[in-house]
Design a protein that fits this description.
YlxR_dom, YlxR family protein, YlxR, alpha+beta, two-stranded antiparallel sheet, YlxR-like_sf
């Protein structure tokens, strides 16, 4: 019996390594559009963040998303993410 390898990714907010399935993937498409990738399979440069407000606030403060996606992220995008995370936390 072989153990299946669990892919690990680093959160851009808290900088902790966690299983890929526990994190939210944020991508930058080739058109420089920033989206939340629910499937985890869309094309684009990706960054991962924990599904809680504290990590999002840390990512905003330390510019973790901007550094990972190599593009400046407008404030409206962060507000959209905050609403999305609110929806995820209530499920």
């Amino acid at each position: 019996m072989t153990n299946k390898k669990i892919p690990m990714r680093q959160c851009v907010g808290c900088r902790e390594m966690k299983p890929k399935r526990k994190l939210i993937r944020v991508i930058r498409t080739s058109e420089d559009e920033i989206l939340i990738d629910a499937t985890g399979k869309k094309n684009g440069r990706g960054a991962y963040i924990c599904p809680n407000r504290e990590c999002l606030e840390k990512a905003v403060k330390n510019k973790g998303l901007e550094r990972s996606l190599k593009i400046s992220v407008p404030q409206e995008i962060y507000e959209d993410f905050e609403r999305e995370m609110g929806n995820l936390e209530t499920r």
